[in-house]
Design brief:
single chain, alpha/beta, 6-stranded mixed β-sheet, 4-stranded antiparallel β-sheet, 7 helices, 10 strands, about 30% helix, binds adenosine-5'-diphosphate, membrane, Cell division ATP-binding protein FtsE, cell cycle
Amino acid sequence: MIEMQDVWKTYTNGTHALQGVSVKIDRNEFVYVVGPSGAGKSTFMKLIYREEVPTKGQISVNGFNIGKLQQRKIPYVRRNIGVIFQDFRLLPRLTVSENIAFAMEVIEAPKKLIRKRVPEVLELVGLKNKGNREPSQLSGGEQQRVAIARAIVNNPSVIIADEPTGNLDPETSWGIMQLLDEINFRGTTIVMATHNKDIVNTMRKRVIAIEHGKIVRDQMRGEYGYDF
Ligand code: ADP
Ligand code: ADP
């Protein structure tokens, strides 16, 4: 479902962030992306959700060649990919429910569906009674749950998570991991960049290691493999 063939990414300042990456990720996989800071992990993820385009090579997501995607088709691809960040990126002046509804409004979902779907995802992420709060009234772990609710509300086939536990304490991180595992179990592919050694070594899922813009390791039931 996600396939890269000899993908290169050079930023306009000349930084070679990815250098000849080829990889296949199947439907329903859960993949950890590990490696040192500056290795190219975020770039790898940004190419999948088309925040960046490759300098060379091909990327397909669900059969769409997203490097060459026509502008008008970008929304179709984006709605099929939910993204989660280390810093949550919620809209501060909106309530929790409004943050989630917003993701449906931008794809022009019918109002009736929004009213039905928002409480469903709130319940799924364990925030049934917090829909009327503002993000600032929630803990970090709760804010990340809102971000996850927003990422899954349109039923994407893929979730991209860039260090989703990076700002959370270990116990809260485990709660977030359980939620992502549950979402994966329900049929969503997850690609997650992380520096969380404990989580990677306990969950034993596929691990792709990137160093200096290249995939240097790709293991099923892999390990974190670094001391940082
Ligand atoms: P993370 O890897 O935690 O997602 P970022 O992607 O924000 O972090 O940044 C990773 C590295 O890339 C950092 O060293 C940062 O300084 C650098 N970086 C990010 N954006 C830019 C940019 N626009 N120009 C130059 N360097 C950048
Ligand atoms: P990681 O997520 O593993 O920390 P990144 O993909 O963020 O790595 O960065 C890979 C390399 O590309 C780093 O050298 C970083 O500084 C650089 N980089 C990232 N984003 C930009 C950008 N927008 N412009 C220029 N350089 C960037």
